Amino acid sequence: MTSPAPVVLxxxxxxxxxxxxxxxxxxxxxxxxQGATRGDGIFETMLAVDGSVRKMQAHLNRLGGSAEALxxxxxxxxxxxxxxxxALSEHLHQNPATDSSGDERVVKLVVTxxxxxxxxxxxxxxxxxxxxxxxxxRETGLDVILLERGYDSxxxxxxxWLLLGAKTLSYAVNMAALRYARKQGxxxxxxxSSDGRVLEGPTSTxxxxxxxxxxxxxxxxxxxxxQLDSGILAGTSQxxxxxxxxxxGWELGYGPLEPQDLLDADAVWLISSVxxxxxxxxxxxxxxxxxxxxxELTAELSxxxxxxx
Length: 309
Ligand code: PLP
Fold this sequence. Notes:
Strand content: 25-35%
Order of helices and strands: EEHEEHHEEHEHHEEEHEHEEEH
Number of domains: 2
Shape: globular
Distance between the termini: 37 Å
Bound molecules: pyridoxal-5'-phosphate
Radius of gyration: 20 Å
Structural class: alpha+beta
CATH topology of the largest domain: D-amino Acid Aminotransferase, Chain A, domain 2
């Protein structure tokens, strides 16, 4: 039997300004917590590299946006920063880094609507080691299938109660889509809307690239992602990488994208905070781009992404 990964848990608690350390191996939640009974809550998943959380401000801002979408009142950003610091320091103390550089830990922020009948949310920070899956996917790439999401690309605007742009705890459908893909022999999924638009992965943002020669022979590299207002989660990784790519001379674009655009691209990736940039090798069994160009573009964008704090 493998022993469980070491997890450090810190609750945000007004009586403990730096957060309240709790034993992650013991029960800590009430069974009537609405996070457990209804999946009613929000979360963020961040990556800490060598003890420092990447893109922390972007994650805290998105947590605030998700809270607003769900009418949840959550602790302020300073309280989160202190609790994150407590949890990460404790995790590093209990599990010192074995790599001299590139040590990766996952820092998860969770807020639920709290215990039924109470008036406050339940909020915590959880730190654990990063698993090997993300690293493997970055290195070997992914086979992806396209799956229907069952919504059109404008429903997010018409029906805000669907919470499509928020990072809610209701991820059972996303996890079911991943299991479905794995049963088909694939690694991951790209959702497509009922009006035929490329949306996102169950836990990732879709990116594609085109490389062209201009009339004067200069190379033009264009990085494209689906429209952010098409009922998808705005990725903090996509946002950060777009900033770095623009500074490095890439052209940027925001959909709309159709499945054929993915098949015609020079490279396609799924990107997210923990796995980082994972190249898509095949979509529905069809090869994407050419291996040499895909490798070159992946290396260039991965270096740009690694340079972001
Ligand atoms: N889209 C969905 C549905 C996600 O769950 C995630 C992350 O888990 C992303 C996109 C990528 O977001 P980020 O880059 O902020 O990790």
